[in-house]
Amino acid sequence: MTLEKALYLIPVTLGETEIRNVLPDYNHDVIVGIKHFIVENIRSARRFLKKVEKSIDIDQLTFYELNRHTDRNIIGEYLKPLEQGQAVGIISEAGCPAIADPGADVVALAQSRGFKVVPLVGPSSIIMALMGSGFNGQSFAFNGYLPVDLAGRTKALKKLENKVYNEDQSQIFIETPYRNSKMFETMLSALRPDTKICLAAGITTEQEFIVTKTVSQWKKGPMPDFEKVPCVFLIGR
């Protein structure tokens, strides 16, 4: 398969999931044809590539690391292979590149320079959570991470809840797994009894559960055990 000169956005599994369950065969064909990868973490990217195709010679590949510590002034260098007519791939830690992910900076730069950008099909925990929630899928917003401090988190939650009722807009956000329980506790204390909360955790993995209940129903128990499981939180009506 001959690849176009383009920036390919390569989705990654959301956990310990069989590749064939979430990624089409076409992704495999694209991946084995790329020699330059922009990645969030080189070690996990290597592991993912070997999972896709065991015969890949990792030592023949070039990796450019892009994460919150990367100097944004140097990311233009990562696109040099495109200038030379070669394909470049972006690999995030999990899910789809450039969605709640530093890869968006590279995509923006590629667009500004007129390079072709090709997003590949793959799992997005944000979209899959909304699909399974039963909430409004015609109007929704992803809000990233909410404030860590209790006062800021409570204020943000009430603001999002107002959007649910005033604009009929589903609200989506995420949290670091070890703070899942604290976030959920704040939601139960800050939101109205009839507001609906969906917890979408461990999507596509054996730990997956997607459950929607009102605040009052959640308070009756049982409480979910998801302290170390990646979770998407949704508020709806």
Q: What is the straight-line distance between the termini?
A: 47 Å
Number of H/I helices? 9
Average pLDDT rating: 93
Structural class: alpha/beta
According to DSSP, the number of beta strands is 10
Shape: elongated
Record the SSE blueprint.
Blueprint: E1 6-10, H1 19-22, H2 25-31, E2 36-39, H3 42-52, E3 62-65, H4 80-83, E4 88-91, H5 103-112, E5 116-119, H6 125-133, E6 140-145, H7 150-167, E7 170-174, H8 180-190, E8 196-201, E9 209-214, H9 215-219, E10 231-236
Parallel strand pairs: 1-4, 1-5, 2-3, 2-4, 6-7
Antiparallel strand pairs: 7-10, 8-9, 8-10
Helix pairs in contact: 7-8
What does this structure look like?
The protein is elongated and about 60 Å long. α7 crosses α8. It is 33% helix and 21% strand. A 5-stranded parallel beta sheet has the order 3-2-4-1-5, with helices on both faces. The chain has a 5-stranded mixed beta sheet with strand order 6-7-10-8-9, sandwiched between helices. It is α/β, with parallel strands linked by helices and 237 residues long. It has 9 helices and 10 strands.
Main attributes of the structure:
5-stranded parallel beta sheet, 9 helices, alpha/beta, elongated, 21% strand, single chain
Summarize the structure.
With 237 residues, the protein is α/β, with parallel strands linked by helices. The protein has helices at residues 19-22, 25-31, 42-52, 80-83, 103-112, 125-133, 150-167, 180-190, 215-219; strands at 6-10, 36-39, 62-65, 88-91, 116-119, 140-145, 170-174, 196-201, 209-214, 231-236. 32% of the residues are buried.
